[in-house]
Amino acid sequence: MVNAEKAAAAYIHHMGLRRRPYSNYPDQEFGVFGENGRELLERVNIPLHEGDPLNNDGPPLPRPEAILQKMHWNEWLRERGVAFMLDNTNEFAGAITSPTKGLGLRQGSSNAGQYSLENDIDWNKLAGIRGFQTHIIGVGRYGIPASRMFGDNVNPSQEIYGGGGNVAFHLIHFYGEETLWGGRLNIAAGRMSTNTDFANSPIYCNFMNNAFCGNPKAVTDTYTRSSYPGTSWGARVRGRPTDSTYIQVGIYFPERGIYGVQENRTGFKFNGANISGVLTPIEIGWEPEFGKAKLPGHYKFGFAPDTSDHYLGVYNPPNRRNAWRTRMTVPNCPTCQGVGDEVPGTGIRRNFNWGLWFLADQMIMKNKTADTLEGGLVAFFDAYWNKADTAMRGKLYAFGLVDTGFWAARPLDTVGVSFSYTGSSRYTRDAQRFQIAHGMVPAAGSAYYQSGGAPLMWGSYGEQRWGGTFEVTYRIHVMRGVTFAPDFQYFFNPGMQRVLKDAAMLGFKSHIQLF
To answer: Do 392 and 458 meet the contact criterion of CB atoms below 8 Å apart?
Structure first.
């Protein structure tokens, strides 16, 4: 055994690999204030800091700053490799501008939030199984986004809503991962969110709008690319050929109804009866550190094809092959309330879909703060494209700045500014134009609108072309485990609809990590 370890060490030295423990997470994670589960995705967002190649151990378990930091029972469990975390994220927003008149819309406010319980186990500490860890996360969610009141369902003002099943505990993650060769290889399998590992960044949820907090919203335009709190059975393999590069490939089995209460209300439906195809995303990343200050950057390019059946819900001109389907209703149509639910061509199915993305962030200046992971000014840019004939959102672009530690007297505070642009697919526009041209839209001010109906497909009041969001936020570190972030949002063409007037909102996002 000793000779084998010496031989391994010599081989590692010959390959030029450094032997040092993981430093992804310091013992105390000051500055990591996202809700539970966000810490896990940082494992792909930080350049490789090798684990001990001889022990093949994984990175330390997440340890966010918390109010009840040193409870005896929790510390006793952590020493044995078992971590429990409980938190609450709450988001409030209210419109400060009046909505478009005559459509049944209103000016108002609402609150949305989530409490979550996370359990992570390091099985090396607990049972001597090197490199193996398991992760379980469940949530309870409440509330709706206030932007719905003035007609925007495309980029919700509060991201922390929906998919929770309206139950006390909705199971999300239930998976295991194995770390090998000092972090060069990581394998995960179980009930997982595709977009926790792919097309994601921990930077996004410094903000509150759902345009990209969580994931770029266009990523979730289809159920096949599951996004927290939606999950499916899957496996992911991530390899790191060099310290600053990685490639990861996944295979997931999308399930219809993962966000609804009819099929997967509690998250405990494991039989896979609704599996509709196979999703095989691939992502390549480069994570350089520039200059003497070692300014970190993250550059990601990915592609995600899937073989599930997709009901278009968008216009395709009738032809000899699909003429018999030209008056079909749209399955799971969000606006099927007697108007707008029959559009020529919308019953057609496609059994192939794809998404393409490029994400980039770069620290351009470091600040001297206790926040070693985020302490500096970071610029980011995102671009995402969907296959047009299976998507409502054809493309999304976003950019912004996030600065932590810019104020010496408040080293753990963060300020951020962002802008997002979302464009509809041409098939969505064609379908809505057809509805308008053929009298499928009730007159403004009619009883239909007063009952809360949106006449066009995708819950729209007019043709959807493009929309944008501008957001400014300031996250205040109130005390250990508590943050409070006043937030301003401005919506250009809410819901990508030029028939709706621009809207402005004020609100806040708070996070409390109990333990």
So the answer is: yes
**Token duo for residue 150:** 């003035």
CATH of the domain at 124: 2.40.160.180
Q: Shortest CA distance to 97 belongs to which of 139, 27, 137, 147?
A: 147
Contact 134, 103 (CB under 8 A): no
- Identify whether 10 is part of a domain: no
Per-residue pLDDT tens digits of the chain, which is 515 residues long: 445 444 444 433 443 434 343 333 333 333 345 678 777 766 665 555 444 444 556 777 888 888 998 888 988 999 899 999 999 999 999 999 999 998 889 999 999 999 999 999 999 999 989 889 999 999 999 999 999 999 998 999 999 888 888 888 999 999 999 988 877 889 999 999 998 899 988 888 899 999 988 778 888 888 888 888 888 999 999 998 988 899 999 999 998 877 777 777 888 888 888 888 999 999 999 999 899 888 889 999 999 999 988 765 555 544 555 444 444 343 344 444 433 345 555 556 778 889 999 999 999 998 876 555 568 899 999 999 999 888 889 999 999 999 988 888 888 889 999 999 999 998 888 878 877 776 767 776 676 676 666 777 788 888 999 999 999 999 999 998 999 999 999 999 999 999 999 999 999 999 999 99
Asked if the structure places residue 437 within a domain, the reply is yes
The answer to whether residue 2 sits within a structural domain is: no
Cα separation, 245 vs 239, in Å, equals 9
Residue matched to tokens 């206790």: 370
Cβ 191 vs Cβ 254: under 8 Å = no
Q: Are 283 and 247 in contact (CB under 8 A)?
A: yes
Structure tokens at 223: 């159920």
Question: In 123-256, which ranges are continuous DSSP H helix?
Answer: 123-127, 194-197
Count the domains in the chain. Answer: 1
Structure tokens at 137: 């996360």
- State the pairing for strand pair 282-286/245-253: antiparallel
479 part of a folded domain: yes
Distance of CA 366 to the CA centre of its chain: 26
CB 359 within 8 A of CB 385: no
Q: Which domain holds residue 315?
A: 19-513
Beta strands in 55-209 (DSSP E): 82-95, 109-122, 132-143, 170-180, 185-192
